[in-house]
Design goal:
about 525 residues, alpha/beta, 5-stranded parallel β-sheet, 5-stranded mixed β-sheet, 25 helices, elongated
Amino acid sequence: MGTATSYRVLLVEDDPLQLRLLTRQLEKDGPRFDVTPVYSVEQFTQRVASTEPFDAVILDYHLGPSHDAPNASDLLRRHAQRLGETAVVVVSASQTQDVVIETLRRGACDFLPKDQALQPGTLSSCLSNAISASRRSLAERRRVERRCRKLSRLAETDPLTQVPNRHYYNRCVREGKWRRDRRRHTCAIVDIDLFKRVNDTHGHAVGDAVLREVARRLQAELPHDATLVRWGGEEFAVVLGCRRTSDGFAWAERVRCAIADTPIQGGDGVAPLRLTLSIGCGRPGLLRDGRPDFRAADAALYVAKRMGRNTVVTPGLRRLYRAVRQTRRHAHGLTLAEQHTRLVRRLASPKHPVRDEHVGPHCRQVSVLATSLACRLGMAAHGVRWVRVAAVLHDIGKAAVPERILAKPGRLSSNQWALVNQHAAVGAWIATQLGAPRAVAWLVRHHHQRFDEPTPAPPPGVNADTARRALGALSLADAAVTMRTERPYAPARPHDEVVAEVTRLAGQQFAPDAVRTLSQMRHRPLTRAA
């Protein structure tokens, strides 16, 4: 733009005489105007299309002798976007009302007859006024735009947590934020467990502090390309750019641990609050219509609540939950073994051979070996029974793991490992649902526990030594049968090699007494079990 004492003016006039007269008239009014003359529509178009800025444009209404040549109204309409807030003054020998109205309607700041434009001081005064008015209009428009952006941010931001709200989400859908994104996305809904109890016990001020802190931790774990929205109440919705179920689960598990592992400060006079989250994840997919579908995530969240809260539910776990409910609905008069058989049969599918092998034959083989080890370790009858039942159920949670992960021939990623490792907690919940003793659920939950790590406390009424020995027998039997069985990621290993491997890890991963017992078995139980 020009300085305070000099304005750049583009003068468009096809008549050379008129061009000289108008230029001379501006020069007589002082050095305030730096005039750039052009003679044709083509030159005008080139100047407007360039990045060269002008404070004002003096535009002759008729350019060219032909009636088909574009006039000033046509040029203003054609180049309205490029001219922007540039002040335009139209000069013409014609003073008809239609010409004046049409040019002003198309965006001209003023209209000046040519005989008046040639009078001393008239053109310069008209230009100065037009430039001033244009600049005031531009400044006002920018102020309005800033205010509108501020109001939009306020309307689309939750005032309590300072995260986007449903208005922001709806605008993203309207504007097609995800319509052109060809990546796969995962929708998730996060809910604070028992949040009403916080408000009822400590008051709404503490509840507000909890919501703010939960939102802050969610944002800290949020990927840069994800969208977080306060969905309503104590619920938050998330759209993640995830290709796989395991990626969405890993993010949700990090968020769950970030809340569960660190108490939240509720304020003065209030002890730190320990809270948990329930999270439901949908299936990754393309958002073909540009609208994320939270129905599957909402159904998964409902399952998380029914499973006891403080958990992450994926589509696979939701299917497993439905199968368990159907089994329990028709469990009247059935034993635990019969319920388990019906559940495994309900989960079986020719599309998932590896998964079916994990929850069926593998568990039966582990049960045979673990029971044999428990008997030779001198455990009481009830302890042997716990080991046998827990071995049958220990991998039932893998029915919630996608087949492609269980059948993957290479090394699993950290996110995939996180999803696989959930199977122990899921299996413990299933054992409880089927009516198994608490000791059995505890064994299923901790069957991957290493011997050199502190043993979790057993359920009330369960002898700690019995629980420790039962856990050692189950852990060893699971590992030995796995090594003895052909897997997508490893071939089956001979009996003697398996015994040598577990002996090497005795006292570290496996219980020494259980390893000793396995090595002393003369009839090679691994061969028969596998």
